[in-house]
Amino acid sequence: LCKCGRLKAYRRKRGMIPHLSVPETKLVHREAMLKAKMNHVFDQKLGKTNWAIESRDNVKWITIYLERDLLLLSTERSSNHDMIIQKILPMLNLEEYRAI
After folding, report:
1. pTM of the model
2. How far apart, in whole angstroms, are the C-alpha atoms of residue 86 and residue 12?
3. Please, which pLDDT band fits residue 20 given cuts at 50, 70 and 90?
4. Residue 28 included in any domain
5. What is the DSSP secondary structure assignment for residue 20, as one 8-state letter?
6. Domain span holding position 62
7. Rounded distance between C-alpha atoms, residue 50 and residue 90, angstroms
8. How far is CA 70 from the centre of its chain?
9. What is the distance of C-alpha 50 from the center of its chain?
10. What's the chain look like in SS3?
11. Is residue 82 part of a domain?
């Protein structure tokens, strides 16, 4: 997502059926961006947010905070989000994540 909450690119696993309609998906994207903006309020005292997990009854969302954008991933609730995050961060090749 870009800083205004618009989707830049996406990829869906073949055969996966989305839980949300297109308008609902756009709303979820905007919600993620608003949460990210709210988190910036605490950056000076707590440090920058690197990633966040939201677990719901039917899905788990992983949000990875990039410099100005967000990377959103949806997974099955039973997924090992720590393992997924640790595999993705090196792919992003961001200096700030190498120490995590």
Report:
1. 0.76
2. 20
3. confident
4. yes
5. S
6. 22-97
7. 13
8. 6
9. 10
10. CCCCCCCCCCCCCCCCCCCCCHHHHHHHHHHHHHHHHHHHHHHHHHCCCCEEEEECCCCEEEEEECCCCEEEEEECCCCCHHHHHHHHHHHHCCHHHCCC
11. yes
Q: Which two tokens stand for residue 87?
A: 């595999």
Give the Cα separation of 44 and 87 in Å (integer): 28
Asked if the structure places residue 36 within a domain, the reply is yes
User: 27-86: per-residue pLDDT in tens?
Assistant: 888 888 889 889 889 999 999 999 999 999 999 999 999 888 888 999 999 999 999 999
Query: pLDDT class for 8, splitting at 50, 70, 90?
Result: low
Q: What's the pLDDT score for residue 98?
A: 47
Instruction: Identify whether 64 is part of a domain.
Output: yes
